[in-house]
Specification:
single chain; globular
Length: about 425
């Protein structure tokens, strides 16, 4: 097999600091997926309502929107390494709280929403700060490879997490305590890795955290069509093309309702994403990142529409894998655009904006698909979301020609002006 097809592993081979952080993040991500699985299943078991499951997205979206951008301004004003040590420790503590409520058998949906809210609030600071590590640890010519490897880590967690959660939950007779506890313990890996990183102090002259600093980041985004288009295209996919909140209802309605089968639906997304993330080598030969991102978003939407109509479990899993494969390329294109166009002094704020768009899009998408699924049927909701994604991809390309025509060079600079009015 030609090495030109495979993701470049030079950052793992040559950079011990990046290698430790990558491995620690992988372990912690698997734990976080266990908790996401457990919360979703626990809310559905209590309520049997797709809307109640979708409302988990609202509990995540509100703190993400409110805190995320301010978290980015904080990451630009302090030592990012110390900040991530504090936030990761806080998230681990909240995982312990989730385990306690499960052991106590409280079955209080409001308490689950509250703990999810708090986790999302801390993650809105933690994730943007952590993502800025890649351009600080790697040289510019390895940036895309580092982003692709980070996506491999994410996909591995999506595969291992749901499958492991489904097996653990089924073996324990439906009890979810172990999922929460494993998540809490898993944070030890990333804490060790981050503690071994060098200091990452703020750039001299950066604005203090607050509205002014946030405004500087938003102003930079508004002036850049490549950035604005990348965020809108990603928001299109996350809001309409990923009906994860519908999985429990679709599983119960069409595939028998087993926790192990529910795990397979999410695992299929991980498998498709992992396969494509391993074969991101061709991206180095693509310069039209904006147009390529619009195409992959449209493919993602079409595949989810196919999943909505699939009557066979295996056909449905294939469609989910195709959607995830397209999404992997979407994320690599988006992140490379963001990290290439953004200056170091604004990296925390723009990375926070990227995180807010992705995380709030996922949450809003869960709420939207869950609400529409309750008003109509889960099948109609999933199909409509996929087709809307396809149509909006074309609309974004026409509305933002600077994004559709954006070219990326191997040096990381834009071949077209990045500051075209949006």
């Amino acid at each position: 097999m030609s090495s030109k097809l495979l993701t470049d592993v030079a950052p793992l081979r040559n950079n011990p600091q990046f290698r430790r952080w990558w491995a620690g993040s992988l372990v912690s991500s698997i734990g976080s997926v266990l908790t996401a699985f457990a919360v979703t299943l626990q809310v559905y078991d209590i309520t049997h309502s797709p809307f109640a499951v979708g409302a988990i997205g609202l509990a995540q979206m509100v703190p993400t929107l409110v805190i995320g951008l301010f978290g980015g301004s904080l990451a630009d004003a302090v030592d990012r390494r110390k900040l991530v040590l504090v936030t990761s420790s806080s998230i681990a503590t909240l995982s312990v709280a989730l385990a306690v409520q499960a052991f106590a058998g409280l079955r209080q949906v409001w308490l689950l929403y509250a703990l999810v809210f708090l986790r999302a609030a801390v993650r809105a600071i933690d994730q943007p700060a952590s993502r800025t590590f890649i351009p600080r640890l790697l040289p510019a010519d390895q940036l895309a490879a580092g982003i692709a490897l980070n996506r491999v880590s994410f996909q591995l967690s999506i595969i291992a997490g749901p499958a492991l959660a489904g097996v653990i939950t089924a073996a324990a007779g439906g009890h979810l305590q172990a999922c929460y506890l494993i998540d809490a313990v898993s944070f030890g890996a990333v804490l060790y890795a981050v503690a071994r990183l060098p200091a990452m102090p703020a750039q001299p002259g950066n604005a203090r955290p607050g509205l002014r600093a946030v405004g500087e980041g938003i102003g930079f985004l508004r002036r850049s069509q490549p950035l604005a288009g990348a965020f809108l295209a990603d928001l299109n996919a996350t809001v309409f093309a990923f009906p994860v909140a519908l999985f429990p209802a679709i599983n119960a309605e069409r595939f028998g309702g087993s926790p192990a089968t529910l795990g397979l639906l999410t695992t299929a997304i991980g498998v498709g994403g992992l396969v494509s993330s391993v074969f991101t080598g061709p991206i180095r030969h693509i310069s039209r990142h904006g147009a390529a991102m619009l195409c992959t978003v449209a493919i993602c939407g079409a595949a989810f529409a196919g999943f909505a109509l699939a009557r066979s479990l295996w056909l449905g899993l294939v469609f989910l894998a195709v959607a995830a494969a397209a999404d992997t390329f979407t994320v690599v294109f988006r992140s490379t655009i963001v990290q290439s166009v953004t200056t170091e002094s604004l990296r925390g704020r723009l990375t926070a904006t990227e995180y807010v768009v992705g995380a709030s899009g996922d949450s809003l998408g869960n709420l939207e698909s869950g609400a529409l699924g309750s008003l109509t049927t889960p099948t109609i909701s999933a199909f409509a979301g996929g087709m809307i994604t396809v149509v909006l991809s074309g609309v974004i390309g026409l509305a933002l020609p600077g994004f559709a025509k954006y070219r990326h060079t191997r040096s990381g600079a834009a071949a077209a002006p990045a500051e075209a009015p949006a």
